[in-house]
Hints:
By secondary structure, the chain is mostly helical. The chain contains eleven helices and no strands. Helix 4 runs antiparallel to helix 5, helix 5 packs across helix 10 (about 155-170) and helix 7 (about 95-105) runs antiparallel to helix 8. It is globular and about 50 Å long. The chain starts with a helix and ends in a 5-residue tail after the last helix.
Amino acid sequence: MRRFGRTEVPAVMKVVCYRNRYFGTPLSDLIQDAMRGPSFWTVAEREIFATRASQFNECPFCVSAHHGIAAAYIAENLVDEALADGDDSPLRPEARAMLEFVGKMVRDPDGLSPGEADKVRAAGVTAEAFDEALWVVTLFNVINRAMNAVGAEALEASQARIGARFIKAFGYRTPPPVRYLSRGAR
C-alpha cells in the first residue's frame, strides 16, 4: 500500500496481518461473508450499519473507513443523509428500521425491548435479514474495540478513498500474499 497507494498502511491491516492465522484470517473471512456474501441487505446498507455501530462505539478509524466504503457504492451525501436518521433518509424502510435498531443495540443493549425488534419486523425485515444485520454489528463491535485498543485514528479523506477502492475491488479477506507467506508459520 505504501508503494502503490502512496499512503501509510492502515492500522486495521496491521492488526489483521499480525498472527493472521489465529486472528486476522478467520476474522477477515467472517467479515467477508457478512459484508459481501449473499444478503437481503445491499453492500451500501451493510457498510452504513458498520458505520453506525462504529459511531456509537466511538471508533474514529472504522467510522471514516466504512463511511468511505459506503460512499464508493452510493453517493456520499446519501450516506450522510442515511446516518442523519431522519424521515428524509434515502434508505428503504427496512434498512431505516434496522439502522435505528442497530443504534439502540450498540448504545444500550440492555435497554432493548421485544417491541423494538417487533418494529423492525413490522417494517418487513425477515428473521434471516435481521440475523444478517446483527452479524455485521456484532463483528464491528469486536473490530471497533480492537481498533480502539491500538489507537487507530480516523483516516484522512484521501486514505479513506484509497481504502474504499481497495475493499471494493478485493473485499475483506486477508490479502493472498499474507496467507501465502504465513502458511507454514506456527
